[in-house]
Amino acid sequence: MAKRVPKRRTAKAKRVDEALDILTALNVPREQHNERSALALLALLGMTPRKAWREAEAPMLGITEMMSVFRDQFGKKYAPNTRETVRRFTVHQFVQIGLVMSNPDDPRRPVNSPDNRYQVTPTLLKLARTYGSTVWKASLAGFLA
User: Fold this and answer.
1) For residues 133 and 122, what is the distance between their CA atoms, to the nearest angstrom?
2) Nearest to 20 by CA among 35, 10, 9, 30
3) What is the pLDDT of residues 113-127, one digit of tens each?
4) What share of the chain is helix, strand, coil (3-state, %, to 5)?
């Protein structure tokens, strides 16, 4: 009988798994423990499959821009008609639990504006930059407190 060789995870899959690990550590609601939420977090942190966590950024992105990151960086194509799903079932929850800011450049922008932009909070950015390092657990404990 042939020996079964375990499949190697791609850098893309590994990065998505890491984002899921962060979401779990942050105690986000179970409904956001999915690939779509992990991809949204990665996009909002400016992460790519090869970028180190310490290099995370805080770009201001709209939903369509996030979905372009899903496709271009992680090979996950979502149909254009799923924008509302990404907004309502992922990004909106991130805003409600304080991980992401809505329209930090213009908080008065109407909710239904096509110009809506989202950005991770400075505290989440600081925490994300420690993921995988020796200070991750202490940083996480401080963030959760």
Assistant:
1) 18
2) 35
3) 889 999 999 999 999
4) 50, 5, 45
